[in-house]
Specification:
Oligomer: single chain
CATH architecture of one domain: 3-Layer(aba) Sandwich
Largest sheet: 6 strands, mixed
Radius of gyration: 18 Å
Order of helices and strands: EEEHEEEHHHHHEHEHEEHH
Number of helices: 10
Structural class: alpha/beta
Number of strands: 10
Strand content: 25-35%
CATH superfamily of one domain: P-loop containing nucleotide triphosphate hydrolases
CATH topology of one domain: Rossmann fold
Length: 233
């Protein structure tokens, strides 16, 4: 589903170098790494927000390396939620569909299943400022999934939440991902978080993807000392 080959690019003074990664259809893949390792830059390039200098990006058998973000078939959940404060929950969830010219009633019908799946029915008329952290995360997830993307990208989806809410949100992410069978790439720096959601994982250090595999293999057989330090801290 996701096929990255020898991807390299720069952003400011930082470089992501020669990344090759495969994520299977319907898989929940976690990209782990310390702050400043290039995880968010990599998913930014995957989503088309940063231009690749070398290498290729494939989504569902299509080469999307040079396509603009809206044509890549990716639903993106940024770290800061990015909800539109002037829109209520219904407006936020249906934003992508309405931006394509879909009428309000049809857009509401299109997202009805998502609203039910995520338990947002009672919040549709609420402003984002009135929502809890967990509710905001559900709304931004629904917005990312509304256009039925091939791939869902989650950038530190639980980092701003308190511990009980983190546990609740991560369980919800797994439930929804399994129900919808959407290929998911989840960025985080916390091993416990990864263990709650991942089918497989990869470790990024200083702009390089150092190791991928089952989490238990990464922990028990780290590729080098940098992976060991991250996963055994």
């Amino acid at each position: 589903m996701i096929r990255i080959r020898n991807l390299s690019f720069g952003a400011g003074g930082f470089r992501v170098r020669d990344v090759t990664l495969d994520v299977g259809s319907g898989e929940y893949f976690v990209l782990l790494g310390p702050n400043g390792s290039g995880k968010t830059l990599l998913v930014g390039c995957l989503c088309g927000l940063i231009r690749a200098e070398a290498g290729t990006i494939g989504i569902d058998g299509r080469d999307v390396t040079d396509l603009e973000p809206r044509l890549r078939g990716i639903g993106y959940v940024p770290q800061d939620h990015g909800l539109f404060p002037h829109l209520d929950v219904a407006g936020n969830v249906a934003f992508a569909l309405r931006a394509r010219g879909m009428r309000r009633r049809r857009a509401a019908a299109e997202v009805g299943g998502l609203v039910e799946t995520l338990g947002l029915g009672g919040l549709m008329g609420h402003a984002p400022s009135t929502l809890s952290g967990g509710e905001k995360q559900k709304v931004v997830l629904a917005r990312a999934l509304a256009a039925r993307p091939k791939v869902l990208v989650l950038d530190e989806p639980a980092s701003a939440l308190d511990r009980p809410t983190q546990v609740e949100v991560l369980a919800e992410l797994v439930r929804v991902q399994r129900e919808l069978a959407v290929t998911t790439l989840h960025v985080c720096h916390d091993l416990d978080e990864a263990q709650r959601v991942a089918d497989r994982a990869g470790v990024m250090i200083e702009g390089r993807l150092v190791q991928t595999g089952a989490l238990e293999d990464l922990v028990s057989k780290p590729a080098d000392a940098s992976v060991a330090r991250l996963l055994q801290a």
